[in-house]
Amino acid sequence: MKRLLSLLVIYTIYYLLLGCAVRMPKEKGHFKTTDLVELIKIDPTLKLDIRYATKNNLAGRAVYTQPRAFLQRDAALAVAAVNRELKPLGYGLLIFDGYRPWSVTKLFWDVTKPKDRQFVANPKNGSRHNRGCAVDLSLYDLKTGKEVEMTGAYDEMSERSYPEYTGGTTRQRHLRDLLRSKMEAHGFTVFKVEWWHFDYKDWKMYRISDVPFERL
Predict the structure, then answer these.
(1) I need a labelling partner for 165 at 20 to 30 A (CA). Which of 100, 156, 190, 193 fits?
(2) 60, 67 contact by CB (below 8 A)
(3) For 39-48, how does the pLDDT look when each residue is reduced to its tens digit (9 = 90+)?
(4) Residue 1 has pLDDT above 80, yes or no
(5) First and final CA of the chain: distance in angstroms?
(6) Which CATH class is domain 29-215?
(7) By the 8 A CB rule, do 7 and 109 touch?
């Protein structure tokens, strides 16, 4: 009898916790049809550095099984246009991330300290990455093929990541602002605490998704 009561208590606690768990938001209204496309199929000259398919990221382990990047078609075409405009200046776009399944957003929230959560999306609301309308990127030098140096590193959780940060070198700020100006000219808006994160203008028109790369 005691064993049965203990099991009942355990199962009760389990289901209470399950009920309180954060789940993907259920959105109401009309949305555009999701049309995620792979960035390198739109422009093969885009350079990929998909950190979330490696251990070199804020989770400390690979959270993607494939090093790929996707965006909604209009956003992907806008990124390709930026890449073309940068080439005469000697630079290309280096892509860190695009569409991100909602479950990965939830993971990032869970592993991030509360004091640093301004840098990650709350899974209760979802992320613009989950809608396929946010891209994380930087510049690379066409001659060397190497990433340029910005005021702060990708996914660095410090004030150096702010788009308005006044520190760093003149060249670092110039390159950061060059990236921002080109992206903004093509319908993107920089995230207030991350110089590398840009949201496409139509992000509200697409649903949050949790489809893994393997099914795209």
Answers:
(1) 100
(2) no
(3) 999 999 999 9
(4) no
(5) 51
(6) alpha beta
(7) no
> Amino acid identity of 83?
N
Task: Please report which confidence band the pLDDT of residue 6 belongs to, taking 50, 70 and 90 as the band edges.
Answer: very low
Residue 64 to residue 101: CA distance in whole angstroms: 9
Domain parsing of the chain, residue ranges = 29-215
Using only the alpha carbons of the chain, give its radius of gyration: 20
**What's the chain look like in SS3?**
CHHHHHHHHHHHHHHHHHHHCCCCCCCCCCCCCCCEEEHHHHCCCCEECCHHHCCCCCCCCCCCCCCCCEEEHHHHHHHHHHHHHHHHHCEEEEEEECCCCHHHHHHHHHHCCHHHHHHCCCCCCCCCHHHCCEEEEEEEECCCCCECCCCCCCCCCCHHHCCCCCCCCHHHHHHHHHHHHHHHCCCEEEECCEEEEEEECCHHHCCCCCCCHHHC
The pLDDT of residue 8 is 37
Task: Decide: 155 and 165 in contact? Cβ < 8 Å.
Answer: no
Average pLDDT score over the chain? 91
Residue 194 catalytic? Answer: yes
Active-site choice (147, 184, 194, 214):
194
d(CA 71, CA 214): 15
| Class of residue 9 by CB neighbours under 10 A (exposed 0-12, middle 13-18, buried 19+) | exposed
Give me 62's structure tokens: 């690979």
Residue whose pair of structure tokens reads 């000259």 in the numeric block: 45
Span 67-90, pLDDT tens digits: 999 999 999 999 999 999 999 999
